[in-house]
Amino acid sequence: MQTTFPQLMMQHAAQRPQAAAMREKEYGIWQTLTWADMAHMVEHMAAGLHQAGLQRGDHMIVIGANRPRLYATMLAVQSLGAVPIPLYQDAAAPECVYPINNAEVTFAFAEDQEQVDKLLEIRDQCPQLAHIFYDDPRGMRNYDEPGLAAVDELLAAGKAFVAIHTGFFAEQVAQNKPSDVAAMFFTSGTTGNPKGVVHTHDTLYNRARAGADFDRLTASEEVLAYLPPAWIGQNIFSYAQWLACGYVVNCPESSATVSIDLKEIGPTYYFAPPRVFEGLLTSVMIRMEDAGALKRNMFHAFMKVAQKVGPALMDGKEVSMTDRLAYALGNVLVYGPLRNTLGFSRVRVAYTAGEAIGPDLFTFYRSIGINLKQLYGSTETAVFVCLQPDNEARADTVGVPCAGVEIKVADNGEILVKSPGLLKEYYKNPAATAEVLTAEGWYHTSDAGFIDNQGHLKIIDRVKDVGRIKGGAFDGAMFAPKYVENKLKFFQHIKEVVAYGDGRDKVCVLINIDMEAVGNWAERRNLPYAGYTDLAQKPQVYELIKECVEKVNADLSVDTMLAGSQISRFLVLHKELDADDGELTRTNKVRRGFIADKYKVLVDALYEGKTSQFIETQVKFEDGRTGSVSATLRIDDAKTFAPVKAAA
């Protein structure tokens, strides 16, 4: 069935008008919007935007958290044949300039005063931005800017318009075709300007439907929409699949209340990047360390049972009656209450993607009865390329190709993809489009990997980042920085890692500790500290991190391909890497080249054999002020291991 998103919304409104479409938590109370409510809001919004001058083919940015009115705006824009462009709500004002100018944006939806201020700050750089509509009026009373108006005014004008022009909305929606552009997503590229990824209704709906069919999703699912709408993963799970399946999307009150709202909603279908699952597990382990001896011992005892039995039960394998009974008891005493505490008591399918997830982390969730799986995809592929079947979930692969997808591996190890969900183009960038799309329809993913003998895809690293060690004990060995970084990030005490080694005689890394996990670890040992910088340089913390590094080296030594990627030297950074300081993208990927330039003095010190190095770094605070943080950083050596030769 070929269709557009506004047409899907109208179908739900016609067939099940009183069914819940979205819920929004406000002042601690969940408010429900039915499909009929949503359809009326979208109709009025579309009519209001039409009167304001939005035309077919125009672009409109939406910037804010997940809210019914933000979703209604995207649907209204699509209903008129225009194109919504979600931007990251935590992006600094200058980061919005390029997307707005590149897409020649004249209309904007801004959630609140913070987002309005951001757009007004850059308006002189984006003179074509004529209309800004804000949703939340708090703090906006004395604003007097040309083209600035409340969404309430837009809706009121639209309601009056459709009262006279009753067939207007239906006529507009009927003009849209599946091949029309549905949305544009700007990549948060680690180098250069972001690129506008253009998707049609057909590409987005096709992949949404493929994912829904794979996991047998129905209208009875409950989803929590808490990640940025500008990220295509959130957009697929809470917008495209929402309209494809007709399930309920729940919008939390704020980022601070997500964990509480998660427990209240109890989603059945859940998605989070590995860092969220890591954070949840870290909070559980911290609470367990602080619990009484009886509770702590019971937890650890039953977790041993879970690790032994849980994954096998999840995969439908044979388990002895004794183990089944022990697991059932553990489910009553530990696993069930733990799933409830995490908000996962009703989860039927949970996905993670974006980065590799640690085997211990992956096993933990599956062992306590949470069907956590991995997927593989990107903005350019409309997310769904590979998915893991329920009984074939593994930590070291990203699943099998899903419906309509073909995969092949190029001679240099790069993964090439053919799919009905591929981007139409990079906006106004034919050269970049030609680089990634071949004449035969293959998309260059830039990821290096291979298909294993079970038909699962395994990703090693980015093709451009895979390098070689030159000189030293591992001369000529393959170096895969992302693989090394992810192995270190699997430890709860390590939050972020940046690895270097290509063209050098050894691998060295910069490390961020996890403040919450290491802070709790320090407090239980009566180790005083005065903030992140102080804690990061404690000798005891260095010993803790050194253990993690050397465990990774031991693991790498038995990997015939990557034994040369073992870490020789490391340091713990004096500040947390931050997107506001340009060190991470808005999707929390490290900008390795930028960091190498910014912290050149530290990288040089690692390779020059120094044991310490002073550094002073400028930082940007949340309120926009700048300051500096300085420290003399300790540099440590780590033990490396001779490669273990495979048995003959």
Summed up, the helix count is: 21
CATH fold-level topology of the domain at 5-199: Rossmann fold
* Secondary structural class: alpha/beta
Terminal CA distance reads 54 Å
Question: Can you tell me the overall shape?
Answer: globular
CATH superfamily of the domain at 5-199: ANL, N-terminal domain
Characterize the largest beta sheet: strand count, sense, and whether it forms a barrel: 5 strands, parallel
Q: Would you identify the regions where 5 or more consecutive residues have pLDDT less than 50? A: none
What is the mean predicted local confidence, pLDDT?
A: 93
Q: What is the alpha-carbon Rg in Å?
A: 26 Å
A few lines on this structure:
Helix content is 39%, strand content 21%. It has 648 residues and is α/β, with parallel strands linked by helices.
Structural key phrases:
648 residues, alpha/beta, Rossmann fold, GMP Synthetase, Chain A, domain 3, five-stranded parallel β-sheet, five-stranded mixed β-sheet
Q: How does the SSE layout of this entry go?
A:
Blueprint: H1 5-15, E1 20-26, E2 29-34, H2 35-52, E3 59-63, H3 68-79, E4 83-87, H4 93-102, E5 107-110, H5 113-121, E6 131-134, E7 148-150, H6 151-164, H7 168-175, E8 181-186, E9 196-200, H8 201-214, E10 222-224, H9 232-245, E11 248-251, H10 258-265, E12 269-271, H11 274-290, H12 293-314, H13 321-342, E13 349-352, H14 359-367, E14 372-376, E15 386-387, E16 400-401, E17 406-409, E18 414-418, E19 425-426, H15 430-436, E20 443-451, E21 457-462, E22 467-468, E23 478-479, H16 481-489, E24 494-500, E25 507-513, H17 515-524, H18 532-536, H19 539-557, E26 567-572, H20 592-598, H21 600-607, E27 612-620, E28 626-637
Parallel strand pairs: 1-11, 3-4, 3-5, 5-6, 6-7, 10-11, 12-13, 13-14, 25-26
Antiparallel strand pairs: 1-2, 8-9, 9-19, 14-15, 15-16, 17-18, 18-20, 20-21, 22-23, 24-25, 26-28, 27-28
